[in-house]
Specification:
Layout: H1 11-44, H2 50-75, H3 77-96, H4 101-129, H5 132-163, H6 168-171, H7 173-187, H8 201-219, H9 221-224, H10 227-248, H11 256-260, H12 262-282, H13 285-292, H14 297-324, H15 327-345, H16 354-382, H17 385-421, H18 428-433, H19 435-440, H20 443-476
Helix pairs in contact: 1-4, 1-5, 1-7, 1-14, 2-3, 2-4, 2-8, 2-17, 3-4, 3-7, 4-17, 5-14, 5-16, 8-10, 8-17, 12-16, 12-17, 12-20, 13-14, 14-15, 14-16, 15-16, 15-20, 16-17, 17-20
Length: 486
């Protein structure tokens, strides 16, 4: 039987609520950690490892997403959802107990293994219980979770950091995740697994080696020296082996239908670009506000929240726009908004207001919401039920891989610029983001450092803009077709 075989229509609302709660847990995790990172760095130190806190989480998440997607098609969405959420909650608890940056990175890796199930499986479950025409509207509801999390997450995260310990920001996930699991246990029917179906462990290993080697090469480019070429070569070799294995395997991680469909390829390429562009603001806008303008964690969180508010608003609008225009028109409009928002990042100055930063984040959020929803809905409507899980997972995988690559690439750009502009300074980012260290700096030193760090961050924003421009070309590859025509 399928998940919808014994599903009462009234139960769809409870299942949707359970999925929204799980997505809220994942969304609030992103906004809280990004807001609290300056405080965590100030306490634990190790700014040179700053990128790994995000990248290791994205790495393990990205590697596990295809596994969850494939297993969801084989064994059912429900079982895999429970496994993933349980791992995520255990990892969240452990992150709160980390006493060094190294331990935090290790526990974030474990947390990412569970997070790989949340986004693709919740989206797949909702796609299973709603029709193609309804999905365009329901995706707006799912995306609205990001708007709520954008308000509650950064503000509550900043408040918790200021009044309690930063550890609490990880522990708030536990009650939310448990309640979501209880709802799905009650209302979502289980699905019998396909007998004889096997998991592609060899392909998964090659995928992990390829992505890990690529990230290490990008994040540690300065420290690796000539070893950089070895890691890049390893990534290429593993990628080639993955391709060869996928062509021979009877149960490939990514079915051939994905590679043969122009629409699915465009959706994956678009989310790869969106993920890379997103990190230009998610990881570095709070750093700009607290490090350059001397803002508080609350102000950084408020500005970053505007991106997640613009995302669901544009997602809801795109659901309606797709029904009266086409996938291509909606995606192109979102791409133009994303490019415009990325260009606004370059207008930030050392004396820019929080309102200007928030407006920039809002425009970027609208572009991301419109393009990502269009790409996702088009792929889900195009994919058959038996491969919908892996097709949805491939979309999430592409976005997360893009985020990991974007974080690594922009982090490398920032570190390179800092090394060139402030060669004698010892970890200048940590010193200006720590309130105590900032106060100890002379006015001349502080002025020089903020100016050089601002120039370095501007190069990060230039990279984000160049990446965003690729989205317009990807949107042109989308068909001139409406969801109801599926």
């Amino acid at each position: 039987m399928t998940e919808t075989a014994e599903l009462n229509t009234e139960h769809r609302h409870w299942i949707l609520i359970a999925c929204m709660l799980a997505m809220f847990m994942a969304a609030i995790e992103v906004t809280i950690v990004a807001t609290a990172m300056p405080t965590i760095i100030a306490e634990l130190g190790g700014f040179s490892q700053f990128g790994w806190v995000f990248s290791i989480y994205l790495l393990t998440q990205a590697v596990s997403v295809p596994l969850y997607g494939r297993l969801a098609d084989m064994w059912g969405r429900k079982r895999l959802f429970f496994i993933g959420v349980s791992l995520f909650l255990i990892g969240s608890v452990l992150c709160g107990f980390a006493h060094t940056m190294t331990w935090l990175i290790l526990f974030r890796a474990f947390q990412g293994l569970g997070a790989g199930a949340i986004m693709p499986l919740t989206s797949t479950i909702v796609a299973d219980i709603y029709s193609p025409r309804e999905r365009a509207h329901v995706q707006g509801w799912l995306s609205s979770v990001w708007g709520v999390a954008a308000i509650i997450g950064p503000l509550s995260g900043a408040w918790l950091v200021q009044h309690f310990s930063w550890s609490v920001i990880f522990w708030v996930n536990v009650p939310i995740g448990l309640f979501s699991m209880l709802l799905l246990a009650r209302f979502l029917p289980a699905r019998e697994h396909h007998k004889g179906a096997t998991l592609n462990l060899t392909g998964s290993c090659w995928l992990m080696i390829c992505v890990t080697a690529l990230l290490v090469a990008l994040l540690q480019a300065d420290a690796l020296g000539y070893w950089l070429l070895a890691f890049l070569l390893l990534a290429l070799l593993a990628g080639w082996q993955l391709k060869q294995h996928e062509q021979r395997s009877e149960a490939p991680l990514f079915p051939l239908a994905i590679w043969r469909s122009r629409l699915i390829l465009a959706g994956n390429a678009g989310n790869l670009i969106i993920g890379a562009t997103m990190m230009g603001i998610s990881a570095f806008l709070p750093t700009w506000i607290q490090g350059i303008t001397g803002g508080t964690p609350l102000q950084a969180g408020s500005a970053l929240a505007m991106m997640s508010i613009g995302w669901p608003l544009a997602s809801t609008l795109s659901g309606r726009l797709m029904l009266i225009t086409s996938y291509r028109f909606t995606a192109q409009l979102g791409a133009l908004l994303l490019i415009a928002g990325s260009a606004l990042l370059l207008l930030l100055r050392t004396d820019s207001s929080i309102m200007q930063a928030g407006l920039t984040a809002f425009v970027i959020g609208t572009g991301m919401g419109m393009t990502s929803t269009t790409f996702l809905v088009s792929v889900q409507n195009h994919a058959h039920y038996d491969i919908r899980g892996i097709c949805t997972a491939s979309i999430m995988f592409s976005r997360m891989l893009g985020s990991a690559i974007g974080t690594a690439l922009m982090g490398a750009v920032l570190n390179f610029n800092l090394a060139q502009r402030l060669p004698q300074a010892s970890d200048p980012m940590q010193q200006i983001m720590s309130h105590e260290s900032r106060q100890s700096l002379s006015e001349a030193t502080l002025h020089q450092w903020t100016g050089q760090i601002a120039a370095s961050l501007h190069w990060v924003f230039v990279v984000a803009l160049v990446i965003a421009m690729l989205t317009l070309w990807i949107a042109w590859l989308m068909p001139r077709q409406r969801p109801e025509a599926e």
